[in-house]
Specification:
TIM Barrel; 2 domains
Length: about 350
């Protein structure tokens, strides 16, 4: 075997069957997404929080977010003519606006999780953009398929199945995560494949499944290809690349992190998340709050009067290098990250390891 099979999502083709995860706030931006796309994978811009740093953010969050996303997509198109999508979280208060902006700016696909994107096709009607829900259970995949078929006579173009070892916000119960009583990604993928394969056969369609969460090496990738997935998604490893636009202190924290530095937090969003311990997280875990002054609610579930700190501000601080006042999301294997490399070096090594494991 001298090369991997391409990942095909509708009429999109990625020569390298790998999607770079959408990491906000301002982690997955144009420079990283374009670099991954230029190597043959699919780059992803994270739409959340792109208005931060804009002078109009405080007075008009919606406009600042929209303009930030427009700028990132425009910049990406200057750097690559290959496949690039946008991650838009269902939990965002301006979800519809960001989806419509993504369509208008002609991104290739939308990846959507942090909730069930049941109305996503409604906001993309008339476009050829590919729609890829993120799910953490076969039940969620089945609900989305049935809802989209009934309401829009449409099927997802692919699914990302994200397991409990992923970074950032997670679609699992907090206590079960802390106790390790959650299903493994291999089982989740197999269950979702059982659903998609039935629809593929009955309706003569293709719904490729993409595995995500805790995938670190080519050996890991090969394991999921053998289960029947058509692609994989990685996030954590792409942070430690030169093309990732976060501050160098953020990357250095990844490189120095040990297993016991990683914790499951109860995010103000109302979902658990996996992150590296910082002074802010230490204070929050001890029950101390940081007063939140907010002129808008960027997340549907956020109540500024009750949350212990502003998660959006904390994530922005991470990207800017203010780590004491930051939430630094990471995957479960962050302690294995030991150096900063180029995106090409990373992808080339992953492909080589995967081919060796498959052979």
């Amino acid at each position: 075997m001298d090369k991997l099979d391409s990942l095909r999502i509708g009429d999109l083709e990625m020569k390298i069957p790998l999607i770079q995860g959408g990491m906000g706030v301002k982690v997955s931006t144009a420079s990283l997404a374009a670099a991954v796309a230029n190597c043959g994978g699919a780059g992803v811009i994270a739409s959340v929080g792109l208005g931060y740093g804009s002078p109009i953010n405080e007075s008009n969050y919606i406009l600042a977010s929209r303009t930030g996303l427009q700028n990132e997509i425009c910049e990406t198109k200057k750097l690559t003519d290959r496949v690039v999508g946008v991650n838009v979280m269902v939990a965002l208060a301006n979800y519809e606006d960001l989806v419509r902006t993504t369509v208008e700016e002609k991104a290739d696909f939308i990846v959507s999780g942090a909730g069930l994107p049941l109305r996503l096709p409604e906001y993309t009607q008339g476009s050829s953009i590919k729609l890829i829900p993120i799910v953490s259970s076969a039940k969620a995949a089945a609900i989305i398929i049935k809802a989209w078929k009934k309401r829009y006579n449409l099927f997802p173009d692919a699914f990302v199945v994200e397991g409990p070892l992923a970074g950032g916000h997670l679609g699992f119960n907090s206590e079960e995560l802390k106790l390790g009583k959650v299903p493994i990604l291999e089982d989740l993928v197999t269950e979702v494949l059982g659903i998609t394969e039935g629809y593929e056969k009955d309706f003569n369609i293709k719904i490729p499944v993409i595995a995500a969460g805790g995938i670190f090496t080519g050996k890991d990738i090969a394991k999921f290809f053998k289960l029947g997935v058509k692609g994989v998604q990685l996030g954590t490893r792409f942070v430690a690349t030169f093309e990732c636009s976060v501050d160098s202190k953020f990357k250095e924290l990844y490189i120095s992190a040990e297993d016991d530095d990683v914790v499951i937090i109860d995010s103000p969003v109302g979902m658990p998340g996996r992150a590296i311990k910082t002074k802010l997280i230490d204070r929050a875990m001890k029950g101390k709050s940081i007063p939140v002054r907010c002129n808008y609610r960027c997340l549907k579930t956020c109540d500024p009067s009750k949350v212990p700190y502003c998660i959006a501000k904390a994530l922005f601080n991470a990207a800017a290098g203010d780590l004491d006042e930051a939430v630094v999301f990471c995957g479960s294997n962050v302690s294995k990250v030991k150096e900063i490399v180029t995106v090409k070096e990373l992808i080339d090594s992953l492909v080589k390891e995967t081919l060796e494991a498959l052979d």
